[in-house]
Design a protein that fits this description.
Elements lengths: L12 H6 L14 E10 L3 E10 L5 E2 L2 E5 L5 E6 L2 E5 L2 E5 L6 E2 L4 E9 L5 E5 L2 E2 L44 E7 L19 E9 L6 E2 L4 H6 L5 H13 L3 E8 L9 H18 L3 E6 L5 H15 L4 E4 L12 H8 L6 E5 L6 E2 L6 E2 L4 H13 L7 E6 L12 H13 L17 E5 L1 H6 L3 H10 L4
């Protein structure tokens, strides 16, 4: 989530091409390290692909780069768990900070969406042959692609998990909004002036310090000036004021420019220590993970479990991943959510600034800004291991709040109805209903107030009508 007026964050081919063609070559891997490709879904006009890098050698791999060609007319769209550079039809995926090291016998993977009928060829892993990665395990289509998406796959026979949620004192269905601890073109607000419709207020943001993993928070000087003087003491009093009204206030970590890195045991401990200190100082009810530049699921889970042990079962743990982060259970953000689902409160995925994405049917890419997009992508999480009460729908509050995917609040309500009741759906219908769907989130309270509180005043009362 960004602080500026323009929030364009679209992972599309045009942006990929603009990234340029330069990449830094690394030493060649020892024998036994391979990269293999597989198409995990194919809907005729496009497909989802995955490269798996496996260390079959006897020494640890430190860093990897997988390069391949795509034929003319086939392009790369969204991608995950890697960085991408492109030069014409040659594309190179390199590791992120958390998945570059591969122990002997271990493997890592990255994925992407392809548009067009072609498949990768001429694969190289750090400048040498991929060792089996040049040929996909599914053959390219030999007939013309269909003009319409194939029928949806049969619904799963096993329902999603329904174990009880942690005791956090929250309503069954809730509305979450982000409060700006900074000044931008949206209306500046004191925390106590957040409209009453919001059940959870996420304070944006705690930020990184010089100590890896550690975060800090204080009232932003620019915001203080804009409000005619607003101090940490005023803020702390406002936290208590909202709590006295039955609201929860959590501290959000990261944001679009956040650079909080929890990549080892020491940084996990620093994260837990520093967030716990902020909870003690300001009285926050929990923490929200909004790291839009990648995370290490192993050590972030370690940090959150440590924090939960210190605070207790009432700790709210929320997440706000980008849409691309929740396309596959194998992606790092999704892995984190599944790894901590016994203590996780809610995942409010940002269903905006993303372009077209696959839904849970894996048969077509749905366009953002529609009921189909919201429902089909929420369905991925609901069918891949998260409980309905752990899934929320994150949407922009209105003009100015995002660069794409802005919808009328009535569209949010329709998506909630489709998921909870099976009514008001678009052409996509989920395989079952999820009456326990947790609710909605918006970026942000400030942008909602700027736009006349339309989001909160429309969505909040509708949540009260859900089963």
């Amino acid at each position: 989530m960004k602080r500026s007026r323009s929030l364009v964050f679209s992972l599309v081919t045009a942006v990929v091409a603009a990234l340029g063609a330069v990449w830094v070559a690394m030493p060649a891997f020892a024998a036994g390290v391979t990269a293999s490709f597989v198409k995990t879904a194919d809907w005729g006009s496009g497909w989802e692909g995955k490269y798996t890098i496996t260390n079959g050698g006897g020494s640890t791999v430190d860093g990897w780069a997988v390069a391949f060609d795509l034929p003319a007319g086939t392009t790369v769209g969204s991608y995950w768990d890697a960085l991408l550079t492109s030069s014409g039809q040659r594309h190179t995926f390199t590791n992120r900070s958390w998945n570059g090291r591969i122990a002997p016998g271990a493997s890592v993977s990255c994925g992407f969406l392809g548009s067009g009928p072609g498949t990768p060829t001429n694969c190289q892993l750090n400048g040498t042959a991929c060792g089996g990665g040049t040929n996909p395990t599914t053959a390219p289509p030999t007939t013309a692609p269909p003009t319409t998406a194939p029928p949806t796959t049969a619904p799963p026979t096993t329902p999603p998990p329904t174990s009880p949620p942690p005791n956090t004192g929250l309503p069954k269905h809730l509305l979450t909004g982000y409060w700006h601890n900074f000044d931008n073109p949206a209306v500046e607000l004191r925390l106590r002036d957040v409209p009453a419709e919001y059940d959870v207020v996420a304070v944006a943001f705690a930020e990184a310090t010089a100590t890896p993993g550690a975060v800090t928070f204080a009232v932003d000087p620019g915001l203080s000036t804009a409000l005619g003087g607003y101090t940490d003491a005023d803020f702390s009093a406002d936290v208590r004021a909202l709590q006295s009204r039955g609201k929860k206030v959590i501290i959000s970590v990261g944001g679009e420019t956040g650079r909080v890195a929890v990549n080892d045991a020491a940084s996990a401990a620093a994260f837990s220590d520093s967030v716990h200190a902020l909870i003690q100082r300001y009285g926050f009810d929990g923490v929200d993970i909004d790291l839009e530049n990648g995370l290490n699921p192993t050590y972030m889970a370690q940090a959150l479990r440590s924090l939960r042990t210190r605070v207790g079962a009432g700790l709210i743990i929320a997440m706000a991943p980008q849409t691309i982060d929740m396309q596959s259970p194998e992606s790092s953000y999704f892995k984190l959510a599944l790894d901590i689902r016994d203590i996780l409160t809610v995942v409010n995925t940002q269903f905006y600034n993303s372009g077209a994405m696959l839904g849970c049917d894996r048969n077509a890419a749905y366009s953002q800004g529609t009921v189909n997009f919201i429902v089909a992508l929420a369905c991925i999480q609901l069918e891949a291991g998260l409980r309905p009460d752990q899934v929320g729908l994150g949407l922009p509050a209105g003009p100015g709040a995002a660069g794409g995917g802005i919808v009328a609040p009535a569209v949010v309500n329709a998506a909630l109805d489709c998921l909870a009741r099976g009514t008001n759906c678009g052409s996509f219908r989920p395989p079952r209903t999820y009456p326990g769907i947790r609710g909605a989130m918006t970026w942000s309270v400030n942008w909602d107030v700027t736009n006349g509180n339309t989001f909160a005043r429309t969505v909040a009362p509708h949540l009260d009508t859900l089963p």
